[in-house]
Amino acid sequence: MTTPTAPAPVVPFDPGGAADLAAARMQMALSLGWHIVLACLGVGMPALLLYTRWRAIRTGDPDHLRLAHQWARAVGVLFAVGAVSGTILSFEMGLLWPGLMGVYGEVFGFPFMLEGFAFFLEAIFIGIYLYAWNLLPPRVHLLSGVPVLIAGVASAFFVVSANAWMNQPRGFVLENGRVTRPSPWEAMFNPATPPQTIHMILAAFMVSGFLTASVYAVGLLRGRRDRYHRLGFSVPFTLAAVVTPFQILAGDYAARFLAEYQPTKLAAMEGLHRTGSHAPLTVGGVYVDDRLRYGLEIPNGLSLLVGYSPDAVVQGLDRTPPADRPPVTPVHLCFDLMVGIGFLLLFLGLWLAVNWWLRREIPRSRLFLWLAAAAGALSAIAVEAGWVVTEVGRQPWTVYGKLRTSEAVNPAPGLWLGFVFLTVIYVILTVSTVYVLRYLVRRERGAPQERVAA
Predict the structure, then answer these.
(1) 9 CB contacts (<8 Å, ≥6 apart)?
(2) DSSP β-ladder status, 292-293 and 178-180
(3) Please, what sign has the CA dihedral across residues 425, 430, 435, 437?
(4) pTM of the full predicted structure?
(5) Please, are residues 203 and 40 in contact by the beta-carbon 8 Å criterion?
(6) Which residue, 101, 120, 173, 288, is most buried by CB atoms nearer than 10 A?
(7) pLDDT digits (tens, 9 = 90+) for 114-137
């Protein structure tokens, strides 16, 4: 008679365990952070391209034509690389977050479908624009680039509206954990859609303008003061400078929206613990033991910004259970970084405007050019910081108030392997993209001017 063996101990399976959750979040952050810069260029650069092409047709100016031709090549390269990173993101949504897509995909998946149509429209007309330059009449060729601009803006709107739904979920009824009566249109046009889409689309034009201008600012610093470089700097920098004050107003609109619809996120952005009137505005600082320390405090500042009165009551983190609060310090510091960069870029735009009004020329100050050269990277950093505020500020929720991030993540083990593999892929993409763009710049600078139709 055999002695029965004791059953093997049951090892509990930990869905959404800490290690896998961290790996999934890092992978998603890497993909979004990398793709968002290319997405911004895909929205804003077609506007620069169409403007210089139009000027070349209208005036016959060879420098505008040369810029239009050079920027068309850059748009083609960036679109191809952005298509790769965008495809990676589309797979990650299902692979990393099945708890989100499996339950709520039918509700907020509609804008992703529309973005797919916009992407294909953009791809078709980029192909026509690039390869039919000398085959179409100039004005017809110019018109073939208009859908590229429209599709780029539409793509940004559709994707950001899906993210806005995650902040303000609408368009469904949840019964026993199952979604019923889905309304994709109501989901897409949720309350967060206007402030988020306006803020993001304006940011895209800023990043495109400042990044493009920064390349020519470096050339001006190196003594290349010919008209081609001056135009290459002034056209995109002017676009970005004009957009900047509207972006600051859009940011103020978004912050007031949060005060009503996501007060916990606003409290984290400002490091505010105690609910009440006369709420201070604090720049910098670290949140420790329910208090923001080492920051520069402006008395009544937050109440004045939110309610135009020092008596305006602002909700603090004390109204939110500790388990439902986002990590305050990174959200607060990223918000301050975004705002600080925004006002620095506003100052640079005013500097250019005043100098142009007085002297009809770009400022010759090397300090201005150094700051303008840095403005491209700074604008991209501001966008990244803004997305940290948006995404980390929503934690611990993937769908605000409905689905926690730990419940949405793929429970399969080994997600860190995907993060390592993707990091290698993005390093290769970054090096390759920079190499090709630098090659285009060197080729344009060193080769004889190509004959292209005006």
Answers:
(1) none
(2) unpaired
(3) positive
(4) 0.91
(5) yes
(6) 101
(7) 999 999 999 999 999 999 988 999
